[in-house]
Amino acid sequence: MVEATKAAYVFPGQGSQWAGMGHDLYQKFASSKAIFRQADEVLGFPLSKLCFEGPEEELRQTINAQPAILIVSFACLEAAREVNSGLPQARFVAGHSLGEYTALAVSGVFDFETAVYLARERGRRMHEADAVRPGSMAAVIGLEESSLLEICQQTGTCIANVNSPGQLVIGGDSDGVSQAMELAKDRGAARVIPLPVSAAFHTPLMQPVVEDMTEIISQLTFADPTIPIIANTTARPLTTAQEVKEELIQQLVNCVQWQRSVEYMIDEGVTTFLEIGPGKVLAGLIKRINREVQTINIGDAQAVSSITA
């Protein structure tokens, strides 16, 4: 088993959802079933049914996708803990965008019910902000960050995610993103891919969300993390409740520094990353950042069973 001092837990963000996710966990593990039932009670409607059955279009909506991914990630972790008491403790935790909320709950900053509530409210406010001022995002493959930054400055867009070497994401209003995509192609990007989202996350277009989430977060009591969490915006550990509150506001309108977060954890001795939640996006990014580290996916019942072998 992996040494605890060398393991990190990482949690996926929006885009990892798929209709059917979590159903096998619900059927096989009592701990997962309890998580889904608890979440439905907190929300006051059966989000679990939407996870299990779709429709995909409704699940993909920001207001639903964000709590759904968090809930399934928790269901994966609880199932793994249920069947494997030897699961390594994490030296660090981190989450990509929405996944940061999952990581914070796992590190003891707030409880599961609060995490579900915050994810739903964050998704709701982002959905509302997009209705007022729609935006878009695009992945840019094979272009240096400095070159893309120049393009963003010309087009009024922003780098929203630094995911791995050669994989960056931009966001902004739709016209600006379209212009930036063309300029990126002209300057030698290997691929430019429009993303299937209707909002420009981690850009100034999310500024209306800041005021709402600041008010919501200010009313809650946070604890200091029991496990250091690597912040999206700084790629450095958060160790106090106040730092966490500031991070959750800053990450709404600032770039997710995922590559630098992973590099920091590796520099601190992490050799194994457990991606806990739906999909395998983060494992793929981590391997592009450093091929020497080990990645383990815990995203469904089969994966939970395999780690106990």
**How many angstroms separate the termini?**
11 Å
Total tally of structural domains: 2
Give the structural class: alpha/beta
Poorly predicted runs are: none
Which value, in Å, is the CA radius of gyration?
18 Å
CATH topology category name of the largest domain: Malonyl-Coenzyme A Acyl Carrier Protein, domain 2
Individual helix count:
14
The secondary-structure element order is: EHHHHHEHHEHEEHEHEEHEHEHEH
What is the CATH superfamily classification of the largest domain?
Malonyl-Coenzyme A Acyl Carrier Protein, domain 2
Any chance you could write out the topology, listing elements then pairs?
Blueprint: E1 7-11, H1 23-28, H2 30-43, H3 47-53, H4 56-60, H5 62-83, E2 92-95, H6 99-106, H7 112-132, E3 136-141, H8 145-155, E4 158-164, E5 167-172, H9 174-186, E6 191-194, H10 207-218, E7 229-230, E8 237-238, H11 241-253, E9 256-257, H12 258-267, E10 272-276, H13 281-289, E11 294-298, H14 301-306
Parallel strand pairs: 1-2, 1-10, 4-9, 10-11
Antiparallel strand pairs: 3-5, 3-6, 4-5, 7-8
Fill in the keyword field for this structure:
309 residues, alpha/beta, Malonyl-Coenzyme A Acyl Carrier Protein, domain 2, Alpha-Beta Plaits, 2 domains, five-stranded mixed sheet, four-stranded parallel sheet, 14 helices, globular
